Amino acid sequence: MDSQEGTSITPRKPRGQLVLFLRDAGVALLFVVFILLAMFAYSGLWPPLVVVESNSMMHGVDNTSHIGAIDTGDLVLVKKVDHPRDIATYADGLSTGHKTYGDYGDVVIYKKGGSDTLTPIIHRALIYLEPNADGLSYRSASLRDAPKSAWSTYPANDTWDHLTGALVLMNVSYNHVTVQIDIGNMIRYFEAQGIDPKPGFITKGDHNQQTDQTSWGPGPVVDFKWIVGKARGEIPWFGLLKLWSTHSLGSPAPDNSVRDLWIALALIIISPIAVDITLSIREKRLGKSKTLSPGQDEPPRLEETPPPNPPGPS
């Protein structure tokens, strides 16, 4: 304690540091809860995020991730949909210009075959097809306004509202692939099952060459009832933590995603420490300044007064 100012600096007690730590942890937890509740309010689903396990939506051939595309290890926000009209397909985007994740149309998350036990698929909705009343053809209003240069049919006399053979979409996605949708095979599939043709979506991963229905099915279309929601936004890299911990990585993690994840984690850990150090230094300086008089570099010193001379002889 300074003898003149009477100001003391009391070091922090361990109990006080614990209280501060619990307070900061509580604030951080409340912030995370608020973010999750906000995501739930927007998406209408719980959990509101899914982790991308494979490279089927990546853009490029060198397994390099890109912000704005859906890459292995990304977290993707899922928004609930109530009607097929809530989903804009690739064919819709050809005329409206609607794009998500680097290409026309929405990306949907759906349960393969409607199964709750299989891992959901996150792929782009290419087109929505509806059967005509005759049960022998399909229609797609999305093609009505789409540029004719972007699609063709076989036989050539098929039209957007009367599709019986093959529908071909040209220059699809970043790799400009030609995608063929066999309408005739769809009709024969339902006929063999003894049921009327059903409406549904044709889907494809941006990185894949063929549609999901051509590659592995099941069934010729994705029933709207199978769809969990559509993708909206992403949190890159952080899903790798879950994939590593659960051993569910479906394809190799992009090297630049791994690098960026470690950098992000380091910044998250280091930033609070740096802030705490800065505040501690500032607090020490403020405490020191309280012990000094204005304009002085050192505390004032008391001058000793010499004792009075003893009285002389009388």
Walkthrough of the structure:
By secondary structure, this protein is of the alpha+beta class. The protein has one domain (44-265). The protein contains six helices and twelve strands. The chain has helices at 14-43, 90-96, 183-193, 212-215, 239-246, 255-290; strands at residues 49-51, 75-79, 99-100, 103-104, 107-110, 121-131, 138-139, 151-154, 166-172, 177-182, 200-204, 227-235. The strands form three sheets. Strands 1, 2, 5, 6, 7, 11 and 12 form a seven-stranded antiparallel β-sheet that branches. β9 and β10 (177-182) form a beta hairpin. The radius of gyration is 33 Å and the shape is elongated. It starts with 13 loop residues before the first helix and ends in a 24-residue tail after the last helix.
- Report the count of strand segments: 12
Along the chain, the helix and strand elements come as: HEEHEEEEEEEEHEHEHH
Q: How would a crystallographer describe the biggest sheet?
A: 7 strands, antiparallel
The stretches of 5 or more residues where confidence is low (pLDDT under 50) are: 1-6
Mean pLDDT: 87
Shape: elongated
Count of helical stretches: 6
